[in-house]
Amino acid sequence: MTSTFKFLAVTPDLRRLEALRSLLGGAGGKGEAIAALPLSDDTRLPDCAALFMDADAAPEGQALRRCRELRSHLHAASFAIILFGSGRGGAALVEGLDAGADDFWQYPFKDSVCLAYLRAILRRLSRLRPQERSVLSGTLSLDPSSRTATLGGKELVLRSKEFDLLYYLLQHQGTVVRRDALLQAVWDYPEAIPTRTVDFHVSQLRRKLGRAGKNLETVTGMGYRFRADQDQA
């Protein structure tokens, strides 16, 4: 990272805090730490580029609940939320993403991998443009300024990456978009990274779109296409 950025770490564990400070400080991060993040209607949210929350902190599930509350209060969150903890395998990552986090870091941290993902997340957030227009396809509508999606007049609950992926596909509806192009546009990943991230998020979108999910097509050997000429009711 070539410039400084502000972060807030929420953890009562001093060793994890120091490890996080060391990792982020070497990449230009400047931040502070608190033991808990209470939320209410009148709570002033942190002014930072990235919020890190310890998923193992007591009481159990606190970080996930706070993450959901943040995402429900902020349709157009301007900062990243990254959970970290001792969780292993894909279960902790999926649980964190479902709660609205941008990533889950396993502790002890893998410095180079964590920083690569953080750079990608911060680049994506820095490119968000408030003037982007809503996109429509039948009864499906996405508004990037409020980060809301509706289908048939009912709001869809989408994770951050799900919204970005669907928005990009709707911007190019009727056109086949390659998987590597989606990785670069939505996740800012280099082409060389092997991952099933796109496939996973497409699967989740189809499930949430219900009958309209059939409009999100897989074009074998090429990529994905959102068709606008099928029923979405």
The portion of residues forming beta strands comes to 15-25%
The count of domains is 2
What's the N-to-C terminus distance? 45 Å
Q: What is the second-level CATH architecture of the largest domain?
A: 3-Layer(aba) Sandwich
The number of helices is 7
Largest sheet: 5 strands, parallel
Q: The CATH topology of the largest domain, please? A: Rossmann fold
Give unreliable regions as ranges: 39-44
User: What structural class do you assign from the helix and strand content?
Assistant: alpha/beta
Helix content: 25-40%
What is the C-alpha radius of gyration, as a whole number of Å? 18 Å
Q: Report the average pLDDT across residues.
A: 82
Shape: globular
Tell me about this structure:
By secondary structure, the chain is of the alpha/beta class. It has two domains: 5-126, Rossmann fold (3-Layer(aba) Sandwich), CATH 3.40.50; 135-226, Winged helix-like DNA-binding domain superfamily/Winged helix DNA-binding domain (Arc Repressor Mutant, subunit A), CATH 1.10.10. It is 36% helix and 22% strand. The protein contains seven helices and twelve strands. The chain has helices spanning 14-25, 62-73, 89-98, 111-126, 160-171, 179-187, 197-209, and strands at residues 5-10, 29-34, 50-54, 80-85, 103-106, 135-137, 140-143, 148-151, 154-156, 177-178, 216-219, 223-226. The strands form three sheets. Strands 2-1-3-4-5 form a five-stranded parallel beta sheet, sandwiched between helices. The protein has a four-stranded antiparallel beta sheet with strand order 6-7-8-9, covered by helices on one side. Helix 5 (160-171) crosses helix 7. The longest helix has 16 residues, at 111-126. The radius of gyration is 18 Å and the shape is globular. Mean pLDDT is 82; it is low at 39-44.
